[in-house]
Design goal:
By secondary structure, the chain is of the alpha/beta class. It folds into 4 domains: 257 residues, Alpha-Beta Barrel (TIM Barrel), CATH 3.20.20.140; 200 residues, no CATH class; 179 residues, Rossmann fold; 168 residues, Glycogen Phosphorylase B (Rossmann fold), CATH 3.40.50.2000. Helix 12 crosses helix 15, helix 20 packs across helix 24 and helix 29 packs parallel to helix 34. The longest helix is centred in the middle third of the chain and has 30 residues.
Length: 896
C-alpha cells in the first residue's frame, strides 16, 4: 500500500487578519504607547534635538555572538554614509555611530568635519562570571577609547573610569544580556541600579513587553531601594554615578542594517537652544544634556516584525557577501562541537545557495527595497507569472520606504507574511507536481515498510547532492536531492529564509522569558498570562483522537480554562477556545485511514501564539503539529508538553513487517522526539513504565499519568440497567482496521455462536477491514459510522462490548460503555486493564479463545449480568472530567 496519496489541491489565499488579540497584548501596548505620548509633551519642541543613541554600521565587524565569529561574519555591511543618510531622512538632528568596541566610524566622520557625537557600544564583563553586557559610552577621546577597551573586561573598573573622567554611559536593553547558558537572577538588576544612572527604556528591536518591563523597573528605583542594593552588594553608588538617585531614560533604534535608524531615539532638551547653537556645536549640547539627564525616548515600537525584517535583510546579505569561513579555522575556533557542526551546516547551505543566481537576485532585490530602491526593469521583465505577486510585494515595500516612510512599519507588518505565503504556495505547488511525476519506487509509491527501510543518510554527504550512486545501501537519498533542489530551489530557499528570520526574531526577543517572568512577578506589573495553546493535526476526523479533543474542547469551554485548541483545516469553523487556521497545502496518508494532513502557515502560527498571550504548548499529534510545537517552543522559549494518544511502536508491530533493527530505528526517532518536551502525558501505567524504561529513557518526573472521561451525552442520565436480551447482542465500536484486532472477532463470534446460536454481533464504525469482515461474518450487522449522540442508546440495547485491540492506550469506548451500564470484555493490556475491574465491571482476557469462553459463560448468568451493569456504571463515575483537567493543568504548571 502506498504511504502517500495524491496531494490535495488548495488555492492560495491571502493572509487575513483573523488573529484574536489577548487582553494582555492590548494592555501592554496601550500602557507603553501612553507613556510615549506623555513624553512627547515633556519638553518644548523648539528646545529639543533628536538623536538615535544606538545604531551601527560596517565597523561593527566582530560580533559578540559565537556563531558570527565562527562563520567569520560581521554584524553588518552597512556603509557609514548610508547610515548617516537614513538617520537624517528620519529626522535625527545629531548623528552618532555606536559600533561594538570601536569608534572608527565616528573618528572618520570627525576627520571629514562632521559634527558627530563620538560613541561606542562596549561589551563589558563581570569578573568571575560568564555574564556580559553592553554599555553605550559617549564623549571619549581616542586615548580613552583604548583605555576603555582594556578596562571593559571588568565592568566595575570600566564604570569607575567613566565616572572619574565625566564620560556619559547608558545601559542599553537592560533586560537583554549575554550569559553563555548561565541562568541569571534578579540580583544582576540590583547591581545595574547601582552602577548606572541612564537606561535605555525604548529599544527599537525589542517588543512592547520587554520595553514596558524595563520602564516599570526603572520607575521602581527609589533612593531607598538603591541604597538597599548598594549595601547588599557592597558597592558605593557615588563611585559609579554623579547622582545615582536621578535616573534618566533614553531610546535608540539598535539598528544594524540602516532600515529603522532614527525612527526610534532620544529627545534631548536644551534650554535656549537657538542662542546656544550660535556658540556651541549640536553634538556638545546633546552630550551635556544626556549627562544632566534631560532626555526622554521617542519613536515607534514594533514586535517581531522589526527584528524579522532585520534578520531577513541580514540573511540576504550573508547569502550575497559570505565567503567560505574555512573548515580548519572553524574547528580550531573556541566553542562547543555542537556549535561548530551547526555552523558547518549553515556554511554549506549558504555556499549551495550562492550557486542559485535566481535566488540571489531575489534576495538582493529584497535587500535593496528596504532602502527604497525599486526593482530594476530587467528584474521585473524576467520574473515568471507565478512570481509576480512576490515582486509586487517587494515593490510596495520599496515605494513605502521611498514615499511614505511613516507607514513603513505598517507595510512590512503586512508584506512579510504575504511574501512568505506567496513563495510557500509556489513551493508546495511545485512539490506536488514533482511528487505526481515520480516513477514507481520513489517516495509516492513507498509503503510504510519501504520508507522506514530506506530512511538513512549515507556517510558520504556528496551522495546527497550528486547524481552518482551512493556506495551505501539503497536509501531515501537516492531521490537525488540535487535534482529536486534545482526544481524547488527558489521557493524553498525564499520561504526558508523568511521563516528562519521570523524564528530568529522571536527567539532573540523571548530567549530570556523566564527572567522577564520573574521580574514581572517581583514588580507586580506587566505579568504575562498563563495560557496554553493545544496543537493537533486532527480534530474534525472520525477517529479517537478527534473525539477526545472535541470532548476536551467542551470541557474547556464550560469552565473557561486558560487553554485554546488549534488545528489546521480548510473549512472548519472556529469556536470559543478553538482556533482554526487555513492550510497552504495538504496530503493524505493511506496507512492512517486516508486521513488528510493540512500544512499551516508557520508565520501565522507565530503571530497567533504571540498575540494570543500564550506561554506554553501542549500537542496531541506527532507529525506536522509535533514539529511545529517544538518550533514554537524554541522560538518563544516556552515549555512544551506532549499528550500521547497513540502507541506508535505497537502500531508499527501490528501493521508492518519490519524486522527488529528497522522498528528500532522508529523507536530511536520517537525517543529523540519525546525527549524534547518538558512533560509527556500518557494514558496507562504500562505505557508510562515503557517511556521511563531504558528503551526510551525519559525522566520519571517528566512522564505524567492522565485519563479521559466520558462525554456528557453518556453521563447525563443514569442508564436503565436491563437484563440480558433474549437474543444476546455483542457490540464492537471503533475503527475497523487490523491494528484494532477486529479480525480476532471472526473466531470469537463463530465460537460464541456454537453455544449461543441466537447471539448477534454488531459493528459500529468503518475502516479498511470492513470488506473482509463482511465476507467472513455474513450474519453480523454493520451499522457504519454512528454519531456520538446516538451511541448511548446503542450501548444500552446491547449486552457486552468487545474490545479485541491491544493497540489502544486508553479505550474511550470502554469508559463510554461503562457509563451506560454496559460490561466490557477486553484484552488484558494497557488502557483497558487500568479501567476495567476484572469480573466486577467487565472481563480482562488474554486471547481470543479466552474472550469467546468468557462471553459464553457471561451469557448464561443473568444475575451476574445485572450486578455487572450496576458495577460498570459505578466504575464510570470515578472518571471526573473536572478532576482530570485540573490534574492535567497542574502537571503543566498552569494556574486555574
Amino acid at each position: 500500500m502506498p504511504l502517500f496519496d495524491a496531494p490535495l489541491t488548495l488555492k492560495p489565499k491571502k493572509p487575513k487578519p483573523m488573529i484574536k488579540t489577548s487582553d494582555f497584548f492590548r494592555q501592554i501596548r496601550q500602557e507603553y504607547d501612553g507613556f510615549l505620548r506623555s513624553q512627547q509633551q515633556r519638553f518644548p519642541s523648539e528646545e529639543t534635538l533628536k538623536i538615535d543613541l544606538h545604531c551601527h554600521d560596517y565597523n561593527s565587524d566582530v560580533p559578540d555572538e559565537l556563531w558570527g565569529r565562527l562563520l567569520n561574519l560581521p554584524e553588518t555591511w552597512l556603509p557609514t554614509e548610508q547610515l548617516a543618510q537614513t538617520l537624517s531622512r528620519n529626522g535625527a538632528d545629531v548623528i552618532t555611530v555606536t559600533n561594538h568596541n570601536n569608534a572608527r566610524s565616528c573618528w572618520a566622520l570627525k576627520d571629514k568635519g562632521e559634527d558627530i557625537l563620538v560613541g561606542t557600544e562596549f561589551t563589558c564583563h563581570f569578573p568571575d562570571s560568564t555574564l556580559s553586557i553592553h554599555v553605550l559610552t559617549y564623549g571619549f577621546t581616542p586615548t580613552q577609547e583604548q583605555q576603555l577597551n582594556t578596562l571593559r573586561h571588568d565592568i566595575f573598573d570600566f564604570v569607575r573610569f567613566t565616572r572619574l573622567h565625566n564620560l556619559v554611559t547608558v545601559l542599553p536593553h537592560p533586560l537583554f544580556f549575554y550569559t553563555h547558558d548561565q541562568k541569571p537572577d534578579l540580583s544582576i538588576l540590583e547591581k545595574f541600579a547601582v552602577l548606572f544612572q541612564r537606561f535605555e527604556v525604548l529599544n527599537g528591536q525589542r517588543g512592547y513587553w520587554q520595553n514596558l518591563l524595563t520602564l516599570r523597573w526603572v520607575e521602581s528605583l527609589t533612593p531607598e531601594r538603591i541604597d538597599y542594593y548598594a549595601k547588599k552588594h557592597q558597592l558605593d553608588p557615588f563611585e559609579f554615578c554623579e547622582n545615582p538617585y536621578q535616573k534618566s531614560m533614553t531610546g535608540g533604534s539598535d539598528d544594524h542594517n540602516g532600515i529603522f535608524a532614527g525612527r526610534t531615539g532620544t529627545l534631548v532638551h536644551i534650554p535656549d537652544l537657538a542662542n546656544r547653537l550660535k556658540h556651541t556645536s549640536r553634538a556638545t549640547l546633546v552630550l551635556d544634556a544626556i549627562r544632566e539627564g534631560r532626555t526622554t525616548p521617542y519613536g515607534e515600537l514594533g514586535e517581531e516584525e522589526k527584528l524579522t525584517v532585520t534578520f531577513l535583510d541580514y540573511f540576504s546579505q550573508v547569502a550575497i557577501h559570505m565567503q567560505d569561513p574555512g573548515l580548519l579555522r572553524m574547528m580550531l575556533h573556541k566553542g562547543s562541537l555542537q556549535d561548530k557542526l551547526m555552523c558547518l551546516g549553515v556554511s554549506n547551505a549558504m555556499q549551495e545557495l550562492k550557486r542559485h543566481k535566481y535566488t540571489l537576485t531575489f534576495l538582493k532585490t529584497f535587500h535593496e527595497s528596504l532602502s527604497g530602491t525599486k526593482p530594476a526593469l530587467l528584474t521585473s521583465l524576467g520574473v515568471s507569472k507565478e512570481f509576480k505577486p512576490a515582486l509586487k510585494v517587494i515593490k510596495q515595500i520599496a515605494k513605502t520606504q521611498r514615499k511614505h516612510p511613516e507607514r513603513f512599519l505598517e507595510t512590512i507588518r503586512e508584506a512579510i507574511p504575504e511574501l512568505y505565503q506567496v513563495v510557500t504556495h509556489i513551493f508546495f505547488d511545485r512539490l506536488n507536481q514533482h511528487l505526481e511525476k515520480m516513477d514507481k519506487g520513489h517516495l509516492a509509491e513507498l509503503t510504510t515498510d519501504e520508507l522506514v527501510r530506506r530512511f538513512e543518510i549515507p556517510t558520504q554527504f556528496r551522495a546527497l547532492f550528486s547524481a552518482e550512486k551512493s556506495v551505501a545501501p539503497k536509501d531515501i537519498t537516492q531521490l537525488n536531492l540535487s535534482k529536486m533542489l534545482d526544481e524547488l530551489t527558489f521557493p524553498a530557499l525564499a520561504s526558508g529564509v523568511v521563516m528562519g528570520a521570523a524564528f530568529t526574531a522571536s527567539q532573540v526577543i523571548y530567549n530570556n522569558r523566564e527572567f522577564l517572568n520573574e521580574l514581572a512577578d517581583t514588580l507586580g506589573k506587566a505579568q504575562h498570562p498563563q495560557k496554553a495553546l493545544w496543537l493537533t493535526d486532527t480534530f474534525a476526523d472520525h477517529n479517537g483522537v478527534s473525539s477526545v479533543l472535541q470532548s476536551t474542547l467542551i470541557e474547556i469551554q464550560n469552565h473557561d480554562y486558560p487553554i485554546d485548541i488549534l488545528t489546521c483545516h480548510p473549512d472548519l469553523a472556529p469556536q470559543d477556545h478553538l482556533v482554526v487556521v487555513r492550510p497552504v497545502s495538504s496530503f493524505k496518508v493511506q496507512s492512517l485511514g486516508q486521513q488528510a494532513f493540512y500544512i499551516p502557515d508557520i508565520l501565522e502560527l507565530q503571530r497567533i501564539f504571540e498575540q494570543g498571550g500564550y506561554d506554553r504548548i501542549i500537542c496531541s499529534t506527532e507529525l506536522l503539529m509535533g514539529a511545529i510545537a517544538l518550533y514554537l517552543k524554541k522560538a518563544f522559549s516556552v515549555p512544551a508538553y506532549f499528550f500521547m494518544h497513540t502507541d506508535w511502536m505497537e502500531f508499527i508491530q501490528r501493521t508492518t513487517q519490519l524486522n527488529h533493527h528497522e522498528s528500532d530505528r522508529i523507536r530511536r526517532l520517537l525517543r529523540a522526539f519525546y525527549a524534547q518536551f518538558e512533560g509527556i502525558f500518557t494514558l496507562n501505567k504500562e505505557h508510562q513504565a515503557w517511556l521511563t524504561s531504558p528503551e526510551m529513557d525519559l525522566p520519571e518526573s517528566n512522564v505524567k499519568l492522565t485519563q479521559h472521561w466520558a462525554d456528557n451525552v453518556f453521563t447525563e442520565q443514569k442508564p436503565d440497567l436491563l437484563t440480558l436480551n433474549r437474543h444476546p447482542i455483542l457490540l464492537y465500536v471503533g475503527r475497523l482496521s487490523e491494528e484494532k484486532g477486529v479480525y480476532d472477532l471472526i473466531d470469537v463470534y463463530q465460537t460464541v455462536k456454537r453455544n449461543n446460536p441466537q447471539a448477534e454481533l454488531w459493528f459500529a464504525g468503518t475502516g479498511p477491514a470492513e470488506v473482509q469482515l463482511k465476507a467472513q461474518l455474513p450474519d453480523a450487522q454493520f451499522l457504519g459510522w454512528v454519531d456520538k449522540k446516538d451511541l448511548p442508546a446503542l450501548y444500552q440495547k446491547t449486552d457486552l462490548l468487545l474490545l479485541p485491540s491491544r493497540f489502544d492506550t486508553f479505550g474511550c469506548v470502554v469508559l463510554e460503555a461503562l457509563s451506560c451500564g454496559l460490561p466490557v470484555v477486553a484484552y488484558n493490556c494497557k488502557g483497558p486493564k487500568d479501567i476495567i475491574e476484572h469480573n466486577v465491571s467487565g472481563y480482562l482476557v488474554d486471547n481470543s479463545e479466552a474472550m469467546a469462553s468468557t462471553i459464553n459463560q457471561h451469557l448464561q448468568n443473568t444475575d451476574k449480568h445485572q450486578s455487572m451493569r450496576q458495577a460498570a456504571y459505578g466504575q464510570s463515575q470515578t472518571y471526573s472530567s473536572e478532576r482530570i483537567m485540573h490534574t492535567l493543568m497542574a502537571d503543566m504548571k498552569l494556574t486555574i
